[in-house]
User: Fold this.
Amino acid sequence: MSQVNTRPIKSLNSSVNLDDEYTQDGSVDINGKPSVRNKSGNLKACPFILGNECCERLAYYGINSNLVNYLKNRFKQSNSTAANNVTNWAGTCYITPLIGAFIADAYWGRYKTIAVFSIVYFFGMVLLTISASVPGLKPHCKQSDSNCLVTKGQSGVFFLSIYIIALGTGGIKPCVSSFGADQFDETDDVEKKKKSSFFNWFYFSINIGALVASSVLVWVQQNVGWEFGFGIPTVAMGIAVCSFFSGTRLYRHQKPGGSPLTRIAQVLVASFRKWNISVPHDKSGLYEFQDKESVIEGSRKLQHTDGFLFLDKAAVETVNDKSAVGSNNLWRLCTVTQVEELKAVIRILPIWASGIIFATVYSQMTTLFVEQGDTMDARIGPNFEIPAASLSIFDTLSVIFWVPVYDRLIVPLARKYTGHQRGFTQLQRMGIGLVISILSMVVAAIVEIKRLDMVKEHNYYERLHIPMSIFWQIPQYFLVGAAEIFTFIGQLEFFYDQAPDAMRSLMSAVSLTTVALGNYLSTLLVTIVTDITTRNGKTGWIPNNLNYGHIDYFFWLLAILSGLNFLVYLLISRWYTYKRATGVFHVSK
Assistant:
């Protein structure tokens, strides 16, 4: 049951090595023809993808960085309500990628998915700008207004716009990093090495966008107006769309492999149907196509691995596996590759779960870090104040600093000691980031202790800003940025490499859900802590006036949870088995 490969066949008399002329990873151009190696993909296509990501992230962080203050000042929401609304929205932005990823892997491919959802994203940005600009739709409340009311229509249009944006990012976020990695032929050692660096520079481009958002845009929002503060990100998103389409003729495309959820379901159903069948000791007897190619579009075969042997029952041939027309019943008999796809997903999930606590720490930059900074002295000279949300610029600067340092210095140095091509394994890299994230919460707690000591010593309880410089927050932001370089970039690379070939968008989306669940966990923790600590009329840890609160306790709580998470991660990483791909990519007509 082999498929026809459309790769040109090398003639015995030909002096041209077609392996060098065409990519060998199954990629095709926009017209469905085999990709010509020196005319497509590689570094030639990357500027358009990185430009798209930079501008799209500028648009996203242009909203996210200061959204908590917009809700507090214009919608008159409390600290806890505004923080929860931000984390709920940000969480949704990292859940919707499951939708986009499924569509990309099963039906449209990554290019079309990014294109369509980018337009949806842009429409949401336009609506958001209108909601902040048009009289009747924009809230008229000022920071000093205590009795101002926001209409249901104003709230409705605003929340509709940001959740359209959340839908739009769902088609971009899981696909764009994988689409960028698709530009490098995995069968070519030179291009494969460049792909590892691509993930570092991809994250670098994200933070260039975030840098502009957390500095220039936050200042515009605070000092010029929200209509311009949201309008500029809208223009940036328009540029992102244009940048992406500009590289169309250069892109390499991987064809969608059909529904990955269907293949997973088939393995589970076939395994349970054969629950009383024994798996042979010789695993070479398990069912697999004999061709070098996998039967799954755009995928290589996977070698059998030990573990989860119950699932191997799906690949045991029996007399009942034929359908009425004589072909194999796919819900009774699955290939070894199909079974190994599911095993790979199961093995990845514990690693995925370990990222949730890290994402909870990361989410504090747009919530409690900002609210902490709002109480501090933000003056630079006599006439200028830096918005608290702009302190996230130091997280961005940290990333921009560490990416080239990691890529050019740390990796070559680590390579000398470890012998690993990438310096560290992906699991080691993520583990280092988890440790740094613990330090960031410890530092944040110490800064808050220092702040509260000053409040208590000088009776500053009713002061809006205490005379303690906001720049005391720089170390906690810088440490979060350093942690990102190790954990988030490690996750990008790990989930792309370890995902089955035909499930890469879906697994990239799964990795992003750690950010979503981290935001939701932050919301849950804030809600639980607020409920418990405000009983019997107490002020609580996170009151509207933080001078009476104890957010340092919350930071210590996150540090403890992060420490426990790291210990569990060490056990999980020792148990992990890397996937073993073999054969060639399957590309049908």
About this structure: The chain has a mean pLDDT of 86. The first strand starts at residue 301 and ends at 302.
